[in-house]
Amino acid sequence: MSRSDLKRDPRHCETINLKRRHLLASAAVLGIAPWLLSACMTSSSFAADIHTSTTTGFLPASQRRKLGTLEVSSIGLGCQWVPGTVGDSVSDFYHSTLDRKAAIKLIRTAVDRGITLIDTAEAYGPFISEEIVGEALQGIRDKVVIETKYGWNFDQKTGKPLGGLNSRPEHIKLVVEGMLRRLRTDHIDLLYQHRVDPAVPIEDVAGAIKDLIAEGKVLHYGLSEPGIQTIRRAHAAHPLTAIQNEYSMLWRGPEAEVLPVCEELGIGFVCWSPLGMGFLTGKITADTRFVPDGPREFRATVPRFAPDALRANMALVDVVKTWAERKNATPAQLALAWLLAQKPWIVPIPGTTKIAHMEENLGAAAIRFTPDELRELNASVASIKIQGDRLSKGVLALSDVEAPPEH
């Protein structure tokens, strides 16, 4: 096969692309600018050098950020799994599957690469994701910050959904005991209320957390998708460490009020779905269709991924791809780097089922924008009107909720 034939061979192209993704990730974790490596690497040296660079790479301690007073890696790992359809497999919410052993290996490899923030929740499974995280972190617990979330109403023995939300103080304390067992630890570094309970004053919630902090079972607390006044009230009752909301180029809602309040109060911000549920990786096309599969394909219910909206929203992917080429990065790296560039106290927690993608994501930490570049990129992103709501109506109704007043 000639050199020109090799270039046209899709299998060869995929191999080169995979090696390039590994190289870019390694450039970041080694502290080397990816454009410099790409400029210096020839096609003949690519294969020879890639193995060494990917197996010795790590996210250095210099790539740390502060959520309030809590120091974490600039990029975390989201562990969000539900039961798979075969054997001991588990699936994420975006139709990717792996077996339990592979999930454990993914987490341990992430820690080896320098990731110190591991995110999960009681609701993921339920219970399964916490159990996997707990097993994976045996022997290396002291190297990581574990954050998990409570707030749904599950039977604590069976995991059976009992309907709705439950943030009553006595329930929170019961839930935390189960979390500690599943996570195989004596403390949770950062505990979030998964969604604001409209039946429980946030001061009561903060009171329960303060009791758990006094007992050493919880070190820091936060809220996910809360209303603005609830943030202020919770912080007044006991300082919040972080807010966890959806935030990406695809959904910039937090910029209006949540990020300014976080900056004002000194609260960190953690981004869930920082890659827009996979949309910003460039792997989704206008012809992609999402087939319902229970909790294993969340996007099937999301309006912005409906066919007409998806087609219109591809304009954003074009922007991401253009800038990724400009910065010699992958689209996923570019999207994460954009988040990191917004504020120094923002930390994305991309989830994945593949070690190669986790390593690729780390490459975002090496990408830098000049002030002019960031203004230009922000303007390009802002010029695109995203079609369709970010979540289904039922799920969206649980965001921006204000807790009831104190009794």
From TrEMBL:
Residues 97-379 form the NADP-dependent oxidoreductase domain. Pfam families: Aldo_ket_red. SUPFAM superfamilies: NAD(P)-linked oxidoreductase. Keywords: Oxidoreductase. One of its GO terms (cellular component) is cytoplasm. One of its GO terms (molecular function) is oxidoreductase activity. It comes from the Bacteria. This is Aldo/keto reductase. It comes from Acerihabitans arboris. The lineage of its organism: Bacteria, Pseudomonadati, Pseudomonadota, Gammaproteobacteria, Enterobacterales.
